[in-house]
Design brief:
The chain is α/β, with parallel strands linked by helices. The protein is built from five helices and seven strands. The chain folds into two domains: about 1-30; about 45-170, Glutaredoxin (3-Layer(aba) Sandwich), CATH 3.40.30.10.
């Protein structure tokens, strides 16, 4: 029959193991979440137009990296204004890259046919994990040095005067 002392020791050990597990899980998740000020993970993707794009490709420009999905209502809602943003700043040092996380290629293609985004798009299933992005849309505005200047973890009206003012200021500092 176990003693009270042994029961307490086992209780303390189980509590310690549980705390260590919680800390390990938190650390694992926290390490993978890219936030403002972080350098972005390196990547090379092939856009739908056949163009290879990677972080060095965007040197000297602001990159608007938008993770989205065809089934995401806020993603659908923000696509027209994101297209207008891409058009407005084309040739001015801003590049918009939409990364769809769709599993189904047909759904992705149907979205493109219906909403006709005027920015680079790619369907890619892993990059969002490198950023710690699992809710959509989520957008990273990345500076010429590869650091996140701003993270927007929700749908946005990309033609909002405040956002446009932010882009104008960021371009002044390029």
């Amino acid at each position: 029959m176990p003693s009270v002392k042994t029961d307490r020791l086992l209780g303390w050990l189980l509590g310690l193991l549980a705390a260590a597990l919680v800390c390990a899980i938190y650390a694992g998740i926290h390490e993978r979440v890219v936030v403002e000020g972080d350098s972005v993970p390196g990547f090379t993707l092939t856009a739908d137009n056949g163009r290879q794009v990677s972080m060095p490709h965007f040197a000297g420009k602001l990159l608007v990296l938008n993770f989205w999905a065809s089934w995401c209502a806020p993603c659908i809602e923000e696509t027209p204004s994101l297209s207008r943003l891409a058009e407005r700043y084309a040739g001015k040092g801003v590049v918009v890259l939409g990364v769809a996380v769709d599993q189904n290629d047909a759904s992705y293609r149907a979205f493109l046919a219906k909403y006709k985004p005027s920015f680079l798009t790619v369907r890619e299933r892993k990059l969002h994990e490198e950023f710690g992005t699992f809710m959509y849309p989520e957008t990273y505005i990345i500076g010429a040095d590869g650091k996140v200047l701003r993270k927007i973890a929700q749908g946005a009206d990309w033609m909002d005067p405040n956002l446009l003012g932010d882009f104008d200021k960021l371009l002044e500092n390029l």
